Amino acid sequence: xxxxxxxxxxxxxxxxxxxxxxxxxxxxxxxxxxxxxxxxxxxxxxxxxxxxxxxxxxxxxxxxxxxxxxxxxxxxxxxxxxxxxxxxxxxxxxxxxxxxxxxxxxxxxxxxxxxxxxxxxxxxxxxxxxxxxxxxxxxxxxxxxxxxxxxxxxxxxxxxxxxxxxxxxxxxxxxxxxxxxxxx
Length: 184
Hints:
By secondary structure, the chain is an alpha/beta fold. The protein folds into 2 domains: 5-122 and 155-183, Rossmann fold; 123-153, no CATH class. The chain has helices at 5-16, 32-47, 60-73, 84-88, 90-99, 109-113, 124-139, 161-166, 173-178, and strands at 22-27, 51-56, 76-80, 104-106, 118-122, 155-160, 181-183. Helix 3 runs parallel beside helix 5. The longest helix is centred in the first third of the chain and has 16 residues, at 32-47. The chain is globular and about 60 Å long. 35% of the residues are buried.
């Protein structure tokens, strides 16, 4: 996991809705990676003078009450970090964002295909290609311990225009130009 993605999630969310005053961050507090993602998001939000409301994703009730409470305050967006619990609760999270008309950015492309607004994540196909080169090297005799750890090098931005329209959001041309895929 590239924790620097947190800053990009904040940036893209504020590009879509510059007036946001608070961002709900759904993360798995039980995982070190979840806490690291939250720290990166908090640092980026602080620079943009946006408050963060961290919500653990241990169960559906916590997610629901956390989003409902913060949505009632108004002027709120959502970041859904990368973890197994986000996948388990995917339908709930997407439906709550739609119900409360909250702009949300997701760490997995599948959320956008299922009706979410926007995602920014490593390109999974490119990661498999990178893995294949490692397999090739290992089959040729290279020791796995001698191979360097690689971070993703290619990322994808996916935007769902139908969802943007349902939220009365106008996607800026600059953001549209950066998108790898736009669902209409």
